[in-house]
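Tokens in:
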């Protein structure tokens, strides 16, 4: 009994240390990526969006790849698909820090509506994949995973086009969106890299990436033990605890954007990460030698549907633009918070 307790205790310690490394390394990763974006004008190009999306999602990539090697399918699905709901509810945290008006009122962007629509499309395709588990002949690669990857790349191209121009003439009254992606690169946000040589920036990027990947490996390897100790499924654990840890860098960068008044960027980074994560299923199929999406459970589908519902609420908020705040939150953030809590309770009780 004592040995079992010590094993659980040591596993918890490893998990907490890995979470701390993910937080700290993720902050420096975001800073280095932003500095490189500024120096080389990456954010305005399609290839730049692709590169930056991958770099800023390293925690999720590390966990998913490690789980694929270990054939822990529940962790993969919970991290890449179930985590969408938790990432979306982070916008309520950002809303609470927005000054003067609800976050969606201040951001006011049709580009964000498009980005939210891409998230809904990709997550919906992931759910449908449960019903269409066809694989590429002679391989373990899912046709649905390729479809999701293609939808993400097409959505990325649409977002790239929309950030430059949209065939609309509209006025968002009293909006304060902050800098756009094209404008952000004109300012170096992070003091440590001002005047630094580009080699120093890349060194920090490499070190932060290695640390993040190592932390992701530790998170994935401890997840099964902790889920069993808590008496919950690995998918539920991944969609909540691991997703929360993986989102720590997003919380830091999002709060920084809010502090600087870059409200559009705060929402865009969340939507962008949510759209990217399901695109990793094709990589996990290849590594594991198995069609991952055939392993979706009822709880996984619930989590995915919850992610869709929360995203749609914010998309509606971006269009309707609520003006009133309750408990420092806009109506849309209040609805999202309540839906998430009720959804987690329902999934736990049913699942």
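Residues out:
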């Amino acid at each position: 009994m004592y040995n079992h307790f010590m094993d659980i205790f040591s596993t918890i310690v490893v998990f907490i240390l890995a979470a701390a490394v993910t937080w700290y390394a993720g902050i420096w990763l975001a800073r280095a990526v932003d500095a490189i974006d500024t120096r080389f004008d990456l954010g305005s190009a399609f290839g730049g969006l692709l590169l930056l999306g991958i770099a800023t999602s390293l925690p999720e990539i590390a966990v998913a790849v490690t789980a694929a090697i270990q054939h822990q399918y529940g962790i993969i699905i919970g991290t890449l698909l179930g985590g969408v709901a938790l990432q979306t509810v982070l916008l309520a945290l950002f809303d609470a820090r927005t000054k003067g008006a609800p976050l969606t009122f201040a951001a006011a962007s049709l580009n964000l509506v498009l980005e939210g629509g891409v998230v809904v499309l990709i997550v919906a395709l992931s759910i449908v994949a449960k019903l269409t588990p066809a694989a590429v002949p002679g391989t373990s690669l899912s046709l649905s995973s390729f479809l999701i990857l293609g939808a993400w790349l097409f959505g990325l191209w649409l977002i790239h086009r929309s950030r430059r121009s949209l065939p609309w003439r509209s006025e968002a009254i009293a909006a304060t969106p902050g800098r756009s992606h094209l404008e952000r690169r004109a300012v170096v946000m992070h003091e440590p890299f001002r005047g630094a040589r580009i080699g120093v920036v890349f060194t920090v990027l490499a070190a932060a990436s290695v640390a993040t990947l190592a932390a992701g490996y530790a998170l994935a390897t401890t997840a099964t033990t902790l889920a069993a100790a808590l008496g919950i499924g690995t998918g539920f654990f991944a969609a909540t605890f691991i997703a929360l840890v993986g989102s720590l860098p997003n919380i830091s960068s999002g709060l920084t954007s809010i502090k600087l008044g870059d409200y559009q960027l705060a929402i865009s980074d969340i939507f962008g990460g949510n759209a990217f994560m399901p695109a990793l299923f094709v990589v996990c199929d290849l590594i594991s030698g198995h069609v991952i999406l055939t392993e979706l459970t009822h709880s996984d589908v619930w989590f995915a549907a919850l992610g869709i519902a929360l995203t749609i609420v914010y998309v509606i908020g971006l269009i309707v633009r609520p003006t009133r705040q309750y408990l420092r939150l806009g109506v849309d953030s209040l609805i999202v918070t309540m839906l998430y809590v009720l959804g987690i309770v329902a999934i736990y009780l049913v699942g």
